[in-house]
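Crash report, auto-generated. Payload:
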Amino acid sequence: MTSRSTFDRELNDLKQDILRMASLVERSLFLALDSLLSGDPVAAREVITGDDAIDNLQDDIENQCIKLIATQQPMARDLRVIITGIKIMINLERMGDHAVDIARSAMCVCGQMPQKPLEKIPHMARLVQQMVKEGMDAYVHNDVEKARQMCMTDDEVDELYNLTFQDLISYMEEHPQSIGCVVYLLMVARYLERIADRATNIAEDVIYLVTGERQCLN
Amino acid sequence: MNSNRLSNTVATVILWASGFFIVGLLVFFLAYILGQGFKVLSLDFVFGPASQGGVGPQLFNTFYILVLSLLYSVPIGVGAGIYLAEYAKPSRLTNLVRLSTECLATVPSIVLGLFGLIIFVNVLGLGFTILGGAAALALLNLPVLVRVTEEALRTVPHAHREGSLALGSTQWQTIRRVVLPSSILGLITGITLVSGRAIGEAAILVFTAGTSVSRHYPDFNPLVAGETLAVHLWYVRGEPLVANADAVAAGSAALLVLVVLFFNLAIGLPARIYQRRLRGSN
Amino acid sequence: MEVNVENKFVVQNLNLFYKDVQALRSISMEIMKQQITALIGPSGCGKTTFLRVLNRMNDLIEGVRIDGTVLLDDQDIFGPDVDVVNLRKRVGMVFQRPNPFPMSVYDNVAYGPRIHGQKNKSQLDQIVEKSLRSAALWDEVSNRLFKSALGLSGGQQQRLCIARLLAVEPEVVLMDEPTSALDPLSTLKIEELLRDLKNHYTIVIVTHNMQQAARVSDSTAFFLNGDMVEFGPTETLFTRPKDQRTEDYITGRFG
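Recovered output after restart:
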């Protein structure tokens, strides 16, 4: 296994960069949700300014992948590592954007958040964060089983999203004066649901990376 | 380092010297023989009949015997060469053929002459004949022809044979249309070499074709005795009774050299041109 | 995938021994009509030997023994009534090094038709032009048809060898590393040519160049130490091989 050690090192660097990007995204997501739930605008602002770092990392990873394809003619697993790397990177970047969206919403609802409709959103947020974490764990360990299990959670998130949606609609009917705030919550729920979908995509990518088979888990 | 350079220089000098020695020797021989002979050489001498002191009949016999002997030896020799190079698989028979060829090649020509004397002159009762001389000469040429043909064919790249076979040609088509044309130069060189040797050969012919010439000139009857130039040269030098032996010998020698030279050029040049066309030196 | 998928060769349980050494071990595979099948593997893995089974070029080698069957259009090529010469006319071969005969370009291409009895001059002219055009060589040599083929460049010589083969109208074209002696540009020209040719011929190509196999072939077989380790659609083999040995070889982590 020494015949392509330079290439192996570069593939490993790629993986490390993706993991670094993932941890930045996870942190953004955590801060955005924290800001929403605690009403702290500082954290929200940190998310918005921190997104540049994620975007920069995205460019780096993209360049690395292009360079590896152009110079190393990757085949089989190597090819899958690089292609999966690109796809995970794109999903992470979108998640980062959603975290920014949540942070913006948090700043808009700051201080005027009614407690009742928030009931299900923290739960949903926990599940989504867990999915992102497990998705990346599956990626680190090439763990197909974990990737599959993690996707089960997506159904739960979807269900929570539907319930939250109905709750918020009826809340708005009962409290028309708080529509301005609750609409943001509606959007946050939607972002969370999208992030869960992105996490599911990552799980699918991990399965393709390991097995070469394409599976739709959504 | 220094000693390496020294030995390199020494080797270079020695090898150059050897080369020059050979060339010098050749030039000396040619100059000497031609110089001695040129005085004698004239149209009358070269083409005139024996009665006028010419060597015309001998010259004619030289070529006649050569052609006849090639008629025997080329088909058999080249055929055996093709067999050994193209068909023969390593087996006892192949080894036997090769061994026989080599044995035949090492037999001294005088022994072949005596053999010819026994078979053609005595057993078959033909007496001294051009036919017998040619046959005995063919025995001398045969092994060389086999060897030369085999070598020439082996220089043709195996890829050419495969290329031809892969197009669905038979082995014989491959040999005839690809291998032989590609090795023609080697073959011609071989035949020229053999011919040169045959022209200069005396020992065999003394015992088989005899030392006299027919009264008719030119005489195409293969069943009469026919003395060749080389035999004539030997005869003249060995027989004290011949008039102006020195001049005749010198002239014959010069003529012999010129004939061989002419023969080489006449066959070798067209072959070389043909080969160049095949190889495409453009 | 609307292509008419039909077998050209069916190889069943083929074993090949060279003296006491087994060079191929129970190979079974199907080679599809009008497809390009690539054989890859490290040196000495048996891929070239296998290729040479298909037109019985191994017959020329002393000490080769073969068992198993190779069916060409349902006929066993080792059957007693098979004429090897005729087989090689149907299954032609292009070699690793260009091997044009030392004769003119025209005579090279006309060689095959001539040995198969074509004497008509105008017919030969047509065949030569058509074959040279099919081999994408006509434009380059039409003004030097009667000069020696050995004056052509390596890439041109190899295309000439392909033209020479096409002139006998084979059904299958076997290629033994046809570009290993050529520069990259000539290589790409030949690869492009292969894609054109596949509409009319079944092509089997042995190559050391994995990218080449990936670029040109429809199916790829990976050979290792006389075994056929894996055989499948090129796209699958190069993106998700089933066997770890294939994976190691094509990702360059072999040995």
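Post-recovery validation: Chain C is about 35% helix and 25% strand.
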